[in-house]
Amino acid sequence: MIPYGRQDISDADIRAVVDVLRSDFLTQGPAVPAFERSIADYCGTQHAVAVNSATSALHIACLALGVGPGDIVWTTPITFVASANCALYCGAQIDFVDIDPRTYNLSAVRLAEKLSQAEATGKLPKAVIPVHLCGQPCDMAGIHALSQRYGFKIIEDASHAIGGKYKSEPIGNCRYSDITVFSFHPVKIITTGEGGMALTNNENLAKRMQLLRSHGITRDAVDMTHAPDGPWYYQQIGLGYNYRMTDIQAALGMSQMQRLDEFVAKRHMLAKRYIELLAALPVVTPWQHSDSYSGFHLYVIRLEPGETSKAQREVFEALRAAGIGVNLHYIPVYRQPYYEQLGFKTGHCPEAEQYYAEAISLPLYTTLTEAQQNQVVTSLREATSI
Ligand SMILES: *Cc1c(COP(=O)(O)O)cnc(C)c1O
Questions:
Q1: Which of its termini does the chain have fewer beta carbons within 10 Å around, N or C?
Q2: Domains in the chain: boundaries
């Protein structure tokens, strides 16, 4: 089976991990701050807080921004469930903004409409979580302008997008957001096995997230309620979690960072090749905004409704049967039973539902060979032929 995504691990990556295994610290050692610095420097952001997953990063980002009971958070329905669950962890409510028909990202136009309605009913969101789907950045300038007008916070879920650019600047620099989150799950662009990071230019937010990832405990005397009792002393000054990343993971991440640009360039090369190979097929290839340089975590095509009589499911099943590990990113979050039970109904975001009925993710990863890519396209041609 050709998977839809997979990691790319080199001998240097393996050596970096083995070096940590032979060192004094498997966790809470020097590799974690070194990895944080390397990502912060790469993105041009002041602070980076490494954690054990992007899900944890989203949770502590919401908490650091003060999201809690009585608040509402908005995100896109076309995302992994974690982008929405983080608000529920904090006791807040969640709602969804429909997608842009070209980028499949949270639409700034739909957001503007929904904000003006919410202002009328007094139910403005505390935070909005745009997701850079497939690695293509959202209309961050547009969303940021709305945040100034309506006073909400912004968390970029950039789980798909490290190594990409928005208006020629690195995604993750937080120019248009309070916090940006990356994921290092093995299918993502660089990996630490499991892992995530939250970036911010706000020192207070960084400090809060550092506390939240480790039980709410500080060893810094300036943050304590009184002078330390002695050199052993630490204080728990809030309620936090154990969301720490290990040094084993951080060393792998540091090593992966050295090939980040190469990884994204390879993904672009394969994406470009898909455009050529798919030109004659009844599919829509991913449209790219001129402001964006995608990380290309995913390669999502849409079946053109009028052009093939084969339904999406039939095409999907034929590809899987041919050994092509296609996937579907994503089921609209509010169509999940857990969310339906919260009251969400089919039809809430029509554009997202139309997308869900036509989208298929084709394999895209750095070690995908041209021969494998040809095989994907041949199988797709057969699967879509009338
Ligand atoms: C993968 C992913 C997450 C969760 O990442 P983990 O590191 O697995 O917790 C969150 N949001 C999006 C959009 C993702 O793709």
A1: C
A2: 11-257, 260-384
